[in-house]
Amino acid sequence: MGSPCHLVLYAEDEPTARSVAAEAVEDVKALEARYSRYRPDSLLSRVNRLAVEKNGVVVDEEMAALLDYAQTCYQQSDGLFDVTSGILRQAWNFSGDRLPEQRDIDALLERVGWDKLSWERPVLKFHVPGMELDFGGIGKEYAADRAASHCLARGITAGVVNFGGDLRVIGPHPDGSAWEIGINHPREPGKLLATLSVPSGAVATSGDYERCIVVDGKRYGHVLNPRTGWPVQGLASVSVVAVHALVAGSACTIAMLKESAGPDWLRSLGLPALWMDVDGRIGQMK
Prior knowledge:
Blueprint: E1 5-10, H1 14-35, H2 43-50, E2 57-58, H3 61-76, H4 102-109, E3 117-120, E4 123-126, H5 139-153, E5 158-163, E6 166-171, E7 179-184, E8 192-198, E9 201-207, E10 212-215, E11 218-221, E12 235-242, H6 245-257, H7 262-269, E13 273-277, E14 282-285
Antiparallel strand pairs: 1-5, 2-4, 3-4, 5-6, 6-9, 7-8, 9-12, 10-11, 12-13, 13-14
Helix pairs in contact: 1-5, 5-6, 6-7
């Protein structure tokens, strides 16, 4: 999943907990094998190769559901949440100290845009050669929801799934108390911005601090605007609480993409949320 992942489960005995955890891990590994952009043998890589052909490619029900969700996110974000924008990573090296050349970004932007593909269930077709789908913005959260659902189906009613800081709470501690979820401060490493009490549901966070570079005193985070190809500015961190990790994750990412308009958009959702802008101002919806 490209980040540390943890399962914390309460069960009647340790063998049961280990068995259920192992099953959940295997399911997540299978999801990664299907949708990893780094594996040339993944289903996603195969779809990306075939979607440019004349008749497009027929996808299965699970990928169709993910595409439907991606289309909804694109519409709800006014085109800012775009699963075709992952190729912009080719221009950005967040482990280095240099900004990309504009000409390299411009060349990639020619292959970015949900409006440059056709999606008519179950057929996906790219209209521009070299386009790619990248489920990095929803895949980890989808996997967290799947893992939680598997645990619930196997009788685990208390626990938490943590995939790289995006969490799905299966249920409260056996004594009924909520899980205390710490939200990292985006500018002060080792310090918490807040602690959220979550008995069930999901918490996801998006920010400009985990993967970023600082050039000439300016921070450039990994959340990229699909229209410009450049990192978004305005918000340093956004956390959202929702029933499902998939919703929480896409909501906080869309808020980051909307920059200064992100807080108002979050208010329109009515979901509990916490954010801090690049000037240090903190906002919260409970």
